[in-house]
Design a protein that fits this description.
heterodimer, A: alpha/beta, Rossmann fold, seven-stranded mixed sheet, 39% helix, 19% strand, globular, B: alpha/beta, three-stranded antiparallel sheet, 12 helices
Amino acid sequence: MPSSSPISSVNDFVVRFANVNGSGSASANELFARSVMRMGIPVAPRNIFPSNIQGLPTWYEVRISEAGHLGARGGTDLMVAMNPQTWDKDVAGIETGGYLFYDSTKPMPQSKFREDITVIGVPLTAICNREYTDLRQRQLFKNIIYVGALSALLDMEIEVLEQLVKEQFKSKEKLIQSNLHALHLGRDWALMNVQCPIGLRLRRADAVGDRIFVEGNAAAALGAVYGGATVCAWYPITPSSSLADAFASHCKRLRVDPETKQNRVAIVQAEDELASIGMVIGAAWNGARAFTATSGPGISLMQEFLGLAYFAEIPAVVFDVQRAGPSTGMPTRTQQCDLISCAYASHGDTKHVLLFPEDPAEAFDFGADAFDLADRLQTPIFVMLDLDIGMNHRLCRALKWDDSRKYDRGKVMTAADLDAGKDFGRYLDVDGDGIPYRTYPGTHPSKGSFFTRGTSRDRYARYTEEGAPYADNMQRLIRKFETAKDLVPRPLQANASKPTKYGVIYYGSTSPAMDEAIDLIETRGHALNRLRVRAFPFHSSVTSFVADHDFVFVVEQNRDAQLRSLIVNECGIDPIRLVPILHYDGTPITARFIAHAIGDHLEALKVTPLRKVVS
Amino acid sequence: MTYITKPKFHHPALPKNALGYTHRDYEGSVSTLCAGCGHDSISGAIIEACFELDIAPHRVAKLSGIGCSSKTPTYFLGNSHGFNSVHGRMPSVLTGANLANRELIYLGVSGDGDSASIGLGQFAHALRRGVNMVYIVENNGVYGLTKGQFSATADRGSKSKRGVTNSDNSIDLVAMALQLGATFVARSFSGDKTQMVPLIKAAIEHEGAAFIDIVSPCVAFNNHAGSTKSFDYVREHNEAVNRLDFITGRAPITVAYEPGSMEVVEQHDGSKLVLKKVAADYDAHDRLGAMSFLQRHAALGQVVTGLLYVDREPEDLHRHFNTVAAPLNSLSDQELCPGSAALDKINAGLR
């Protein structure tokens, strides 16, 4: 018997599956998570996986929260321990009063368990060996059997699981029947042999609404389809490869000419990241909307080309699905660590536009917007996802598209403009916003051609190494960057219920953990105003937000406080006013971490001021 | 260079091509290369080829990397868009440009440093993908702009102007192009305009990856005794396999070669190449034969020139991708955006 009382919770707990990579557990675990969502209960699954194909440990963490908290929480209430390699660590990670689910076919010594948890043994291997002779089947169905057992233990609606199995295998009746059979094997065994349900329960709710369940990479790729991308050049790299894969599969459905069956898109798997960005730049120079998807190491390789695109003013869209660096770093772990390397990518004076989506829905929006921004500003646009958003299914608002929207192709002079006698200077600031006009190659037999180069040139694109035209051009690029501030997505501010002198700035995948942390911080008696930054360069409201508070926490997932550095650098703010809250161990940031770090800081401020004691 | 402006005056009697353009309409600004540079002869041959083919100058996109050779696109086709990209990366930029608009003619100009050293990877991959382009390497075996270092095409044992002997093996881009699957492979010599112009014309009409290596002596750093890329050396060791005449559909075929030594090659677009065979045993449609011929003659110290290989039925990247006939950069919002109804369906599938 456990020495402390078992956790009792309805629709608010964390289940963690410990598996072996390549054992087929992923689809079973996803079936579990989807079933929770179908019961109307918000759910946030996360893959924690190694850089490996088969054999190493992998985890799937499912946070269930009727209150709608989708950030990682930390801690495990129910551990489904299917991997002997990680047993000790997995058992140790269970919250006091939590539950351990394991394969009890082989007896385990008492020392392998804990006194303060509830242990549920199901002889999964024995059941499989009895039912199946085929080795592969034994392994695959073991996963479905434990999902079946969990359905009984957690009091799930079995019809929901059955329906999902039917949807997954569509018309393959044989597969449907065998999976349903396995599901019931586990469920029936649990109902017969274990006290069901346990203290953790799922009860139908109505907290999901019309939200969708999608991975950020898939949503961003769909954004690229809706944004009109016709050329994608990429090189495989975790965690961005699934973005290019998703783009290809979306295009198979959405970008085939219905009559000729030909493709309205070209997707190249390039030989490296240099070639991918080179192709994007070539295509965009030639008037197509083009993008690449990569991660930090790819950004490092693209530096020279990014400087060219900045200086020669060529649109490009780069999806950077960030992972922990530097170097190869932790390829399968999340971080927000490429802000500086993207914001100032390449040698010389450069500044780039970055967008920070918080979830798949915003990854879709920004993914599409990025192409308008790139054409409007004639410069690379970085969509800064990370592994946490990109490679996990996330519950988010449904994707929306306004059919009256037209693509903004930016300032492009046509043959008619040229014939009408408009003065064409490729780098001429006609409108005072720093953005010049361009022509696509092939526009006109005798007017509007120009030479694109990374070397210095005058307003009419003529090569020059004179100082004055060089400086004139560099100043115009700064004007253009100023223009960008009002074109990129604005920061979103949310104020505390009572007036406060303190604020917090955050961005990207930190969002759900931050929202939840605010509640925790408020229960500790503190109030914080929030500003979610959604793009770089910063809108003027970032500077005013800092000015409006005594000090502002900047929460981010990297070691060096990169966003904070950008704010200090670009907004001319005294660094002392920005308190860094940094999480960078490769796991997604949690509400508990933020609340703890900020709460401690605020409590330290509550001590009687030193000056008073002394005087 | 901006300080020398080329006069725009056209002599009224200048001959015009079928589109009404004169030779002058295909020129660029004044070259800033050294007097006597082989590269300027290549620019001249490109101008000649485009004039003779009646190509509207703005329908050509000229792309290059970095180096002396890569500067040359400024000196021809002044009414074409040009892109002087980064060192060794012209092939990827050209590939992207080609994907965006399959209707233009893509002319990539590179050098031996640009393609055989820093850009060897991109050179290889663009050829192996079958990008429809003319890829010219102006090959002088030396880095000119940085004052005379060996490039990767410098022959082993050749001497630099400073007297240093190259101990590294050389890369033969022609041999690589054959191995990589280029569907048109030729070599020429910048001092041989009669060979260059028809080769460039044929390459332009070729609907696949066409590669021409043009040995182009560097008068400043690689034209001395001991160099294997000097005018004298190449003239003495040039081993032409064939002489080419190029005939488009509109011109009648009136070739005066004696029977038996002549072969007419019809290209996919209807244009015809008339090959006058110099080496009687040479077959320009035999990739393996070309590779071995090249190696045998290289071992004898001979620079084999001419049309070395041509595939009569080339394929290109657009065909591999099955892209629509219209240029991708011309597709309308309606053709590209699936709209809200499709998105609603996608949303429904994600619940």
